[in-house]
Each structure stands twice: as structure tokens, then as C-alpha cells.
Amino acid sequence: MPHTRPAMPRRAALATFAGALAVPGLSRAQAAWPDRSVRLVVPFGAGGASDTLARTCAQAFTEESGGQTLVVENRGGAGGTIAGAATAQARPDGYTLMLADLGANAIAHEMMRGLAYDPPSAFTPICHLTNLPVVVVVNPTLPVRSAAEWFAMAKARAATPLTYAHPGIGYPSQLAHELMLQLTGTRMVPVSYRSGAEVMRSVISGECDCAIPTVSSALPFIREGKARPIAVLTANRVPQLPETPPMAQTLPGFEASVWNGIVGPAGMDAALVQRINQVFVKIMHRAEVTQRVQTSQAAQVVAGTPSEFATLIRAEIARWTPLIRANNLRAE
């Protein structure tokens, strides 16, 4: 049902505007951002982890932005590149933003031919929002209880390889799986599904032996005994799975996660980027947002600077590009 949003009190609006003007180098036009609704393009459909994060941000955006609305626009498909192209081609005025991830915003040009944009140069990094931990899970009938036993079984079953489920070529879980296999000299057969939910169903049913879902999506099945966790891919244990060790205990230094952040089109003014960053940092530091993200997604809140996010994206491109090229990985 349509509803109206109460107008922001004039005194509060003036205070917000004055505070924005205090940021060094911020012009009056940039300080007024946003003076209308802002579009946040999400590269996945409704209901998933990315969509949940976007809508959590949208709920707090009005209060932190001076009364405007953050409109979530789901543009799923083609590994997130439909959303990526829509954002890359938008005006760099701060009114079209994107919930960024590894695929669409870092490595898509390595995975797809004829892409309409070049990820390393098409976007302006604004704010790294969260890291979502992932966990290696196996079907509970598989007689392994540690990463070391898992790799040993994979090596012993050369004639009948283990199978691993993933939600698509180039997704973080699939790349992490391939990198671990490369580092350990083991082989497993990949099986692609259309969603993370289908991946979990395949492991529970025994159709596939293992997978690397997010902790939040795997946790209900782990608690029911339908999937067994053997290692998290974070540097340290995660609170939701305190008995599950990090993969780094078996593969020293190994770490991987699903990250999300905010980007805009290339060419955005630096002062405007700083203004938008401040808004999203405030959103992520709100108690109710932090609690919801940590509780519903087992996520780590980052809320970093634009330069830190740019550094992360460059590091991810450098990390995954050699693996993609060596294995000739192409998005489906």
C-alpha cells in the first residue's frame, strides 16, 4: 500500500546541510546530496543475502541522508553484469549506485567475452560494507571431519572423484574451491546450480559431496545435522560455528569471503564520493543495522574508506585473475 513519508523538520534538514558543508572541498551541490531519491542497483534477485543487505541499508538511509529514499532495484542475471552495465553507463552524479561484489565489479571481464564495460575502470569505489564468511560443508555420510581428511579422500578417489556444488562459474565459492584444489594438487568434479539454495539441497540430498556456502545459508542445515562443517575460510573461527577451525590451519594463510560494497560509475567527484561514504558508514554503524547484519548473515561490518575499498578490489583482481586464466574459466 502506498504510504507517505513525513517531511523532515526544517531545523534538522538545515543542520544536515550545514554539517555536510563542513566537509573540506564539498561544493554546495555536492553537500546537498541527496536532494532526491537514490537508486541502488543490486546484481541479484530479491530474497538473497545481497538483497537483504541492500534493503537493510535502505531502511536506515532516509534518516542518515536527510530525508531521501534509497530505492533498491534488483537487476539479476548474467553473473551480475546486467547490473554492472546499468551502473557503469549511468551519470556519475551519485544518484545511481550499485551493491558491488567480486564478479560484476572485479573479474567479470576475465570470465565473459564481449562485456559491455571494463570492471577495473568502470566504477568508483565508495564503501566496503561487509564480509560474509563461507564454510566448507560435506554431506554427513561422507567419512571426513576435517579439511585434511577431505583433501586426503579427494586424492585417494582419483578414479571416482568427489563432486562439489557451486552456484555458477566465477562465483567466490567456486573460485575458492578451485584455488584450494590447485594448492593441494587434488581434483574434484564441479557441478553448477542456479542458486545457493540449490547448492545446499544438492549436498543435503547427497547429489554432491560438498560445497562452500555462506555461513548464514548453511547454518540451519548444520544445526539439523543435514550438513557437516569442516572448515571456515575466515582467518579466525566465527562465533556461529565455534567448533569449526579455519582452513588456514590446514592451508597456512588461506582466506576467502563474500564481500559487498557500494560503487558508482567512473568519474565521480572525490568530494561527492566522500559524502556518500560518510552516509553509508553511518548506516553500517547504526546498532540495529550492525545487529541485523551480524545476526541474519553472520557478516563482519567493515564500513571502510573509498581508498581501502579500491585497494581490496585491486587485490582481488590480482588474486583471482591468474587462476581464471590458468583454468580457462568462463561464465556460463
Describe this structure in words.
The chain is an alpha/beta fold and 332 residues long. The chain has two domains: 10-132 and 258-326, 3-Layer(aba) Sandwich (D-Maltodextrin-Binding Protein, domain 2), CATH 3.40.190; 135-249, Periplasmic binding protein-like II (D-Maltodextrin-Binding Protein, domain 2), CATH 3.40.190.10. The protein has helices at 10-21, 28-31, 49-65, 81-88, 102-111, 119-122, 147-156, 172-184, 196-205, 215-223, 270-285, 287-297, 306-326; strands at 38-42, 70-74, 96-100, 123-133, 135-138, 163-166, 189-192, 210-211, 228-232, 257-265, 300-301. The chain has a six-stranded mixed sheet with strand order 2-1-3-10-4-11, with helices on both faces. The radius of gyration is 21 Å and the shape is globular. 43% of the residues are buried.
Q: State mean pLDDT (0 to 100 scale).
A: 90
Q: How does the overall form come out from the CA principal axes? A: globular
The main sheet orders its strands as: 2-1-3-10-4-11
**CATH level-four homologous superfamily name of the largest domain:** Bordetella uptake gene, domain 1
Termini separation: 39 Å
CATH class assignment of the largest domain? Alpha Beta
Supply the helix-strand structural class: alpha/beta
Portion of residues within helices: 40-55%
Total helices: the number is: 13
Quantity of strands, as a count = 11
Uncertain segments: 1-23
The CATH level-2 architecture of the largest domain is identified as 3-Layer(aba) Sandwich
Order of helices and strands: HHEHEHEHHEEHEHEHEHEEHHEH
Radius of gyration: 21 Å
Most strands sheet: 6 strands, mixed
* Beta-strand residue percentage: 15-25%
Overall tally of domains: 2
CATH topology of the largest domain, what is it called?
Answer: D-Maltodextrin-Binding Protein, domain 2
